[in-house]
Amino acid sequence: xxxxxxxxxxxxxxxxxxxxxxxxxxxxxxxxxxxxxxxxxxxxxxxxxxxxxxxxxxxxxxxxxxxxxxxxxxxxxxxxxxxxxxxxxxxxxxxxxxxxxxxxxxxxxxxxxxxxxxxxxxxxxxxxxxxxxxxxxxxxxxxxxxxxxxxxxxxxxxxxxxxxxxxxxxxxxxxxxxxxxxxxxxxxxxxxxxxxxxxxxxxxxxxxxxxxxxxxxxxxxxxxxxxxxxxxxxxxxxxxxxxxxxxxxxxxxxxxxxxxxxxxxxxxxxxxxxxxxxxxxxxxxxxxxxxxxxxxxxxxxxxxxxxxxxxxxxxxxxxxxxxxxxxxxxxxxxxxxxxxxxxxxxxxxxxxxxxxxxxxxxxxxxxxxxxxxxxxxxxxxxxxxxxxxxxxxxxxxxxxxxxxxxxxxxxxxxxxxxxxxxxxxxxxxxxxxxxxxxxxxxxxxxxxxxxxxxxxxxxxxxxxxxxxxxxxxxxxxxxxxxxxxxxxxxxxxxxxxxxxxxxxxxxxxxxxxxxxxxxxxxxxxxxxxxxxxxxxxxxxxxxxxxxxxxxxxxx
Length: 555
Prior knowledge:
The protein is built from 17 helices and 30 strands. The chain is an alpha+beta fold and 555 residues long. The protein folds into 4 domains: 2-53, Molybdopterin biosynthesis moea protein, domain 2; 64-163, Alpha-Beta Complex (Aldehyde Oxidoreductase, domain 3), CATH 3.90.1170; 168-339, Molybdenum Cofactor Biosythetic Enzyme, Chain A, CATH 3.40.980; 352-554, Spore Coat Polysaccharide Biosynthesis Protein SpsA, Chain A (Alpha-Beta Complex), CATH 3.90.550.
């Protein structure tokens, strides 16, 4: 890769190293300069630019990030489309992050251009939470380095998520003279909350004397109720492998695998099993909702990860929890304070809604509703909705107006997937695009971070292009409005941060929110698409006929 100042006459195809916003131009860093771009820069008096020119032995940053992300991410992870050399891996379910620390260190040591960062090994993750990010530092990575990274990964991913699987726990609590019922009641609620946090249930509970025979009978009863995890909380702490609680587990036909763990609080935890099901002698701290060594073990059991003596004895580094006030324990919030703490969540995938505007009168079509026109046997509007449904958008809302019943029926032709579509009625559809925009924004889920405003008459927009816009969206880095481009020409759909929703509802006429792009140029991110689908809207019979002809030729 060559980097430095480039004469403007030799700049076509170069990647711009620094943003250029002057003389009516708004070229972002990382833009690959087209012949048209070069002409505009020359007209603005620019004679040289700073940028990068790739050689055949280079791999573009996005291509390299995509390849490494796809290889490095295992089960339970969903990769995002790469943007600016970054591809993220997000959890698709709640569970435990499994991380191959040694090989990740080895990959990061291969070449300074290639990096991967992950959550700590065995971190608890929630759906849509970021687990890893692959970042190519310069605009390209050496092809040999990318290949070495892929060879190092091979067929074994570097990071994955072991999803929580339901466990049905049975809790046995023993009593001694003076044991208070309130303490036992509290332990039940704490255990139930812990089980809910890892997707399990507290199936049953028994309270018995602090006696091994009584413990054994209680375990047998819970086994008959279908429990597949046995928790025994003694009224007196376990102090030896031969103490009352382990003796009760053995009397129920179980065996003891390990006693003690290098985690504080939680040192006096006992591991055993009964007919292949885990049986745990709980340390006293397990009766408290505060994070402790029992949580480490319970989380791995729920994720069906190994938790034998070797794993328990390997928990010492990071096992000093005495001063820890909170840990990553997924649990239903039961108070305003807990809800506030839950709001301080780790990075997650942005919740982007797709809004398909399909209320127009097709006045330029000269009669029929273009949205109902079939292309390859599918109504035009259904093609636009299908792309949105196949994307990473968290919801799809279609705005209806003109011929609402017919358009809704066209969307229903998608079959079962159409059940996921929300609809919004725009009674003022004759007022133009702005009225549909207001109706649609008002119908979006309250928790979305942004919206892709899609047009029902753009049947060539693909789900991959929508995902590329979502991948580019990052308000923290100043990418609050993501606009698709092809060779420097802007198209649709546009992705908007929710901060603009109020301004968008205030627009009027048929131009939508286009003027807001100019008013917030510093927050606009142009996303090169490479194919013209984002530029094609079918407004006239001639445009529709030409598009159908191209579709037939491509088939």
